[in-house]
User: Fold this.
Amino acid sequence: MNLPKLFEPSLRHRAHEIGLEFQGREFRFDELNRRSNRIARRLLAEGLVPGDRVAVYLKNCVELIEIFLATVKAGFIFTPINILYREGEIEHIFADADPRVIFAHRESDEILAPLVSMRIARHPQLRHWRVEELIGNEAEEAKEAKEAKEIPSSQITSDTVAALVYTSGTTGRPKGAMLTHGNFVANAESLIAAWRMTTDDRLLLPLPLFHVHGLGNGLHTWLALGFQTRLLERFDKETFIEQLLDFKPTVFFGVPTMYVRLLETPPEIARRIGQSMRLFVSGSAPLPAAILEQFRGLFGHVILERYGMSETLMNLSNPYDGERRPGSVGYPLPGVSACICDPASERLLGDNEVGEVLVKGANVFSGYWRNPDATRESFTKEGDKDGTKAGDKEGGREGYFRTGDVGVRSSDGYYTLQGRLRELIISGGFNIYPREVEEFVMKLPGVAAAAVVGTADPVKGEVPVIFIVADPQSPPDMAAIEAACRKGLASFKVPKRFLLIDELPRNAMGKVQKNLLADRLRSQ
Ligand code: MCA
Assistant:
């Protein structure tokens, strides 16, 4: 099974139906199909071969969907880059993923053109295509459509890599998670089954398509079933309620920050929205139980919380029927097996014992791009014959994926996440690895040491705060440091506060005791 086959019910069998709305325009499935074939042919004519990376640096738009379809149809690897990323972050992905083509809007030339021209000097095959240039004239399109042959996708198996999704690591540099066609197909199929999605649904989609939440959950379930979707360029808190009233979706996938924003909805309007809605799902960050309760009071719906990761797509979900337990992420989704184990010994733990959450299934990625060491470390070793270790060889995979999340399973099977083994801040559903920000700031003049910690925020969940130790020889200009962060880091990674500190608290091993820094922030 592969993605083109998964999408056949829409792209072929519902070809003449309008499947998508974007910025007031409607798109039929055959239009998307034809235009994506055109892009695929252009990529093939450019000499791309299966396995080549096609990068996109795009905010949500129809072209992003068409490029995605073109890429997976022809067996290339879709490589989305977060539109909030700045030069250094993009440059790293260029160097690591080594894309053959980068698609972007003209308005991104300012940031991309210098990076591309630098790279082209050593990699002359790289192409920078502006999506504005993809729009051909109608006569050309009609001629092509007549001659159009389907793009050969028969070689694409479930093990073919479909996307390279960059996810930050504790090492400070994002790693490319290789997600296969089989991973995405398994994810879409299990969500459709678990959340009772049908062709009668209507999806309002404001999530960015450069992350697997928007891509795997939103785009793929839509293309698999062919229901009506309205895509938004982004979540705009000023106009989102109008969008809900106007489009009357039955399904909504959001991050907790979006639900916090929705609590500002006037009660009468919230009730109306709730009446036409079937299912609100939340993920990408923990949903506070208080938000779930307030939302229930206002909209008359219990938000269904689920848990996923870029490396595994969706793992666990509260049930559609049955108790949606506040604070819990529910049970393993169909086809996913989960367990809790001791992170040091990998010994399986029982109910109510706290340990690392491990998962296994057709949803789990095939490894990190060109990084076998990181791949090896992220899976448990092969299991012991007596079955006391979590790993096993069933299903032909090397053990279970180590999520790095700490959790517990209740005696009735519900999983609850309690923290993380690795440092990670989640702000508005975007992941921030403190080390990446620290390394960036440490390179700036006047900084002797830096430590980033997360602090609670009522809307974003958490926000980053940085403690800086000044270089005694040349103390830092804090305003310049902040400006450098704004220029060089994605906006969600920029610390919300820049604090000078005489020295960082360290333990006997010299490791920074971030818990003490976090305590200090709480007590202020
Ligand atoms: C946020 N900003 C954006 C976008 N989102 N800019 C362009 N396109 C976007 N899509 C920038 C704004 O320019 C602004 O930058 C800052 O973020 C805050 O925006 P604001 O209007 O104040 O929005 P908000 O009401 O605070 O809400 C932020 C948000 C955003 C819309 C909730 O955080 C968001 O879209 N989050 C979704 C992230 C997501 O999809 N995560 C999935 C990861 P400035 O500060 O410079 O003005 S995948 C994952 O985690 C796993 C797999 C999982 O389980 O899902």
Residues 245 and 269 are 8 Å apart (CA to CA).
